[in-house]
Amino acid sequence: MVTIKSKSEIEKMREAARIANLAQKNIEKAIRPGISTLELDKIAEKTMKENGAYPAEKGYPSGIKGIPDFPAAICASVNDNIIHGIPSKYTILKEGDIVSIDLVACKDGFNGDCARTYPVGKISNQAQKLIEVTEQAFYEGMKFARKGFRLGDVSHAIGEYVNKNGFSVLREFEGHGIGREMHEDPAVPNYGKAGRGIRLEPGMTLAVEPMVIAGSPDMIEGDDGWSIWTYDGSLSAHYENTILITEKEPEILTLA
Ligand code: MG
């Protein structure tokens, strides 16, 4: 069921989203060759706690027997690791890497979810283009994330833009509604048919998140049961914001 948030719920979403974005900003300042992804994880958790929030990804159930709950405050995914990388003191960022950080802050029962891909020092032209196309794909979706359009219009715009630029979207994972739960209806795929899907209505809150691969769209799962990798070893990037559908332009809650 797709929920329509009330005014007071939207206020709480704004606050959770603000803290999620603040955690991203603090991580961005810390990124440099030689830092571990576990250190970035600690920065995010500290930022959230200082602001009365907690990291909703920590302890998130895998839903798979034998695979433990997610152990960290953030997902930190380097290069060909597309999503759900587990932070580790052994994963040390080096010059030329790109690292995708996906995090969710929860406060007063509501969640704010955002992801960014950051360069580590000087990166290749291809990596730079991948980051830019992934971010712009989100904004292409935003042109349709408003009353009068359907969800498929958003998905279609994202996928078309990525394909046009010679990259692929990950099809097995998608964006989602968000609110009291980190993952709510509807699913928001990064590909689809224009004119299909539910009608967008003011008060809907969505996490829109292009996950883009420089090479083929195929993926493999890591041995840890969480991490998702490109099959061909090519680079990947991720860009996500929590948004509010309004009467006019969408409000991008995790950029306020
Ligand atoms: Mg996320």
Write the layout of secondary structure elements.
Layout: H1 7-30, H2 37-50, E1 54-55, E2 74-78, E3 81-83, E4 98-107, E5 110-119, H3 125-142, H4 151-164, E6 168-169, E7 175-177, E8 184-188, E9 205-208, E10 211-213, E11 219-221, E12 228-230, E13 236-238, E14 241-244, E15 251-252
Antiparallel strand pairs: 1-4, 2-4, 3-12, 4-5, 6-10, 7-8, 7-9, 9-14, 10-13, 11-12, 14-15
The structure holds magnesium ion.
Describe what you observe in this structure.
- The protein is built from four helices and 15 strands.
- With 256 residues, it is an alpha+beta fold.
- The chain has a single domain, classed as Creatinase/methionine aminopeptidase superfamily (Creatine Amidinohydrolase), CATH 3.90.230.
- The strands form four sheets. A five-stranded antiparallel beta sheet has the order 8-7-9-14-15. Strands 1, 2, 4 and 5 form a four-stranded antiparallel beta sheet that branches.
- A hairpin with a 6-residue loop joins strand 11 and strand 12.
- Helix 1 packs antiparallel against helix 2 and helix 3 runs antiparallel to helix 4.
- The protein is globular, with a radius of gyration of 17 Å.
- The protein starts with 6 loop residues before the first helix and ends with a strand.
- It binds magnesium ion.
- Magnesium ion binds next to strand 4 and strand 5.
